[in-house]
Amino acid sequence: MADRMHEVLSELDAAIGVSGHEDEVAAVIAGQLEGAYDSRDADPLGNQYFTRGGEDGAPTVMLCAHMDELGFIIRHIEDEGFLRIGPIGGHDARMVIDQDLTIHGEDGPVHGLTGAKPAHLVEAEERKQAIPLEDLFVDIGTASREESEALGVRVGQVATFRRTGELLNGTRVFTGKAVDDRAGCAVMVEVMRRLGDQPIRSTVCATASVQEEVGLRGALVAGTRLQPDIALALDVTVCGDTPGVEFRRSPVRLGAGPAIKYYDAADWLGAPVPRRLTQRLEQAADGAGLAYQREVLFGGGTDAWTIATSGHGVLAGCVSVPSRYIHSAVGCVHLDDLEGGVRLVLAFLEGLDGEPLV
Ligand SMILES: [Zn+2]
User: Fold this and answer.
1) How far away, in angstroms, is 126 Cα from ligand 1 center?
2) Label partner for 313 (CA 20 to 30 A): which of 54, 77, 177, 255?
3) What is the fold of 2-69+178-352?
4) For 120, which DSSP code?
5) What percentage of residues in the chain have a pLDDT greater than 90?
6) pTM of the full predicted structure?
7) Is the C-alpha dihedral spanning 342, 182, 336, 219 positive or negative?
8) Is 338 helix (H, G, I), strand (E, B) or coil?
9) How many whole angstroms from 119 Cα to the centroid of ligand 1?
10) 248 DSSP assignment
11) CATH superfamily of 71-156
12) What is the pLDDT of residues 189-234, one digit of tens each?
């Protein structure tokens, strides 16, 4: 099972899916889920729905993992051939410098570099400051706008970090360009595959959502469309277990199990998960003997936010995969946490066949 998880995640991480351009990820997920659902559907935004039918009267459970990843958009091509980029999603400008990018051009991928002023020329004061994204440029080796355009590059195209995912030195730590949220997608895929062997009464709809990183947009539509009885977002969360991070600010560790989310907030906006849902997740974990962590996150949200307030309202929560270096090119997740997440969701679904939650 563990190796299969690695395979599933590698394939998902390699796919390109900047917000609004999720088709390739959708195709990968459809391939991975072949034979694991009864019906498939999509909506105008590009959300994908893979449904496994349940018994009449049993609840409908929506699982939701977002397909999109952070990226960039080409906003200008300089006369000298350099590209100017803008962020898609919540980048930290310090993470973007000196990276390899792939621009998804008209005629296929174009390799670019985010260079910067050489160390020799940087003044003492400048050294202390991050270079804002609007000052960055992408060098694609060309010397003029015409040459850049001849490579198929145009304003409005998107770019991603150019990096192949891998296990770090034979450990169970996977590092990739898009573990947010291909890790959640991998958990969802494995849940659906394993459900095939189990007599679960609920209808389960695996939703691969679009445009999470630009405002939880796809999930709002998906929640409204499905109006499930219960929804679980499957997404990554922030680890606080590396040097220089105050652990108390995000007391979640890599490899210590999936996290049950209780609350998350961005600025003054917050999303409390109803206690009756977190309680059932805890019971599921305890009953199955699974390690889990308790998550309270200040500084971000998930698809559960917009699903909860969609339509007439949905009972929504989140099972998180701990991640280091989130929103950077070198995100890390632990395969054991993905495996734990799969088992937790399966145990939760089984539990719904006992005492009803809704
Ligand atoms: Zn995410």
Assistant:
1) 32
2) 54
3) Aminopeptidase (3.40.630)
4) G
5) 87
6) 0.96
7) negative
8) helix
9) 34
10) G
11) Peptidase M42, domain 2 (2.40.30.40)
12) 999 999 987 889 999 999 999 999 999 999 999 999 999 999 999 9
